[in-house]
Amino acid sequence: MTDESPELVLDWIAKAKPSYPIALTRGAFENQIKVPHFPYCAVIGPDGNIAYAGNKGGEEGALENAFASAKKEPFWPKSLAKLTKLMTGDPIKAYGELKKLTEGGKVSETDKAYVDGFVAYLEERANVALADARSFREKGHVFKAVRKIEAYSTAQPPFPASADSAALLKELQALPDFKKEFGGGEAYAAAEAFEKDREFLDAFESFKSVAKKFAGTKVAENAKVQAERLRSEGLPGYEPACESCGKGKRACTKHKKEVKL
User: Would the pTM count as exceeding 0.85?
Assistant: First the structure.
């Protein structure tokens, strides 16, 4: 369970493909077990009962005993196993399959609560994507906005947020510099990927390239800001394996690269 940003967690799930369920609790889990500090552990059985709450390194064998005593049940019915995999890999398809089940009257009373929960979860993902897309548009990130909503805008069956997603997509595509903003945004995303991998010199050069090649666009302005940030923080040339770079959290004298915008 986690209280991190939903989109960050979903991105991680898509890449890591964990074999265990991840719950986005928004603080509810922490409040329930009265977390006093981090890290903190808890074992909750499928019946909702808390078998253990405490420090992982606390009482010897406490976690093992809690797992042994907790009621053993699957997290969800076997009949929905395939859908649970689709929910992280292809939420659009998963939603369609769930709607077929509900509208076709093929959901048993035992499974109904699970199906309703899955539907609500996927609809919330669509709502979050729409909110993120609107935020990206305000910040001048057209490419990111489009990528967030394009699948939801044409989903069949539609999500409750599909109509608004389609309307926003149409607005974005009608922007005078849409092609340049979109193309620049794609290059901007590549620069962000370099930074994420701590390849800061490549990230700087990529942001700089976007700022020049797509001059006059909002994404170019954003790219210039990011390039300047990397330069001012002394990151170009940073070597992850270098102890001096690591301690200083910037490129050391030996590895620092002098760069200009």
Answer: no
